[in-house]
User: Fold this.
Amino acid sequence: MARITIRDVARMAGVSPTAVSFVINDRPGVSEAKRQEIKRIIERTGFRPSVSASRLVYKRSFNIALDMHDLGASLEDLFYVSIIRGLLKKSKAYGYNIVFAEIDETKNEVLLPNIIRNHDTDGIILIQSPSLAVLKTLNDLDIPFVAIDVHEKDPPFTSICVDYELASYISTNHLIENGHRKIAYIGKGSVPHFYLQTFQGFCRAAEKYNISIPPDWIQITAYNEESAYNCMASILSGAKIPTAVFCAVDSFALGAMKCAYDQGYQVPKDISFSGIDNITFSSYFKPPLTTVAIDKEQIGALAMDMIVKKIAGKPVESITVRSDNLIVRDSVYRIME
Assistant:
């Protein structure tokens, strides 16, 4: 049986192919009676619009480029896997393809993948903030873009941010409310804006209770599980041992907890741990990790909503997602006063 085309549906309904396209894409311009008739024909014939036809009608590629790059820790990548899951779910509803790409930089130029350089994408979603060079290149290309998991405050582009300062405060405050006053910090100094937010939240909670933190308990060289293990080893090599550690990323907690176990400490009775993210493995840590959950699938869905609006030329405001959802598990021991 020959494949039903949009022209066949239009002929059956006695309308133009454009009218059928309006119905398929839920656009105005067709009477309600004719709209229902076209829908019945589509259902009866099993018609499915071709991508090529849609591209010709709307002068769009129906591709969204997702800029991926080396994100560091293997477990930290799970944060972005959940975001991508949210993107893919929402992209189906909009009829868009998500195409993985990578914008690279050398010392002298920005290297764009073919899908962006050849304008074979209607929009771009960036993971984390673009550099100034990439930002200028994208603005010159005049392709709509949205950046997700942006760490700086009030960036000069459309973005989805997480309030990591608040998340850090909530996570650290939970340790303090459970009687801990000797608290260490393990963070990611290689990402300055992220480090600044998480350290400020940690300090705000400590200052609220007039808690002072020894300098050697502040470790900022973590970037994956192994380096977090080394940060914890540095903390444990000092004269004083903390009763709790706040980790700016859940994956850091895994490395730090392993280090504590390897040196003979009990978790959480000797040393408690808390984090941020609520990645999938957090509930499978031993013990399960107390953390502040970030709704990663929501970030992906919101990014898709925003880029589609930008492609349509509609105004889009930046968004900060909820970051105060504390998930209490077994990694924090309550010190009885």
